[in-house]
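If it is no trouble, can you show me the amino acids of a protein and the tokens describing how it folds?
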Amino acid sequence: MDADAAEDWVSSWAASVSERAAQTQELSRRVADLTASAAGANGAVRVTVAASGVVTEMRLDERVRNWPAARISAEIMATMRRAQARLAGAVADVAAQTVGVDSETGRAVVASYASRFPEPPEESDDDPSPRRRGLW
């Protein structure tokens, strides 16, 4: 390889590194701005979470006034977990638009969110919770 070819290769490599760094910064900025929301109990409970998974907003419909405290807390927690689980999909979308979901960075960030905020299990008829037993 002659000196000009080596210089071109180094310039190309440096530009590639700079581009990946800019894409990673954009991913980080956009993920930090994400929020996700979910509703539960036919809209009686609505929760919004930040990218960290922390609840940033919660709305309770007047219907919850007639519910036992255990039902209210269970609905809030289940709805919060559904909102948090939606973060992983939103992060995957942002990764696809910035660094690429198949890149090492994209896979690592998406996997991190998927493991921190997994999809909550589906409720089944075998669920022993008070709601499933007809106590609500």
Remarks:
- The chain has a mean pLDDT of 87.
- The chain is about 55% helix and 15% strand.
- The first helix runs from residue 3 to 32.
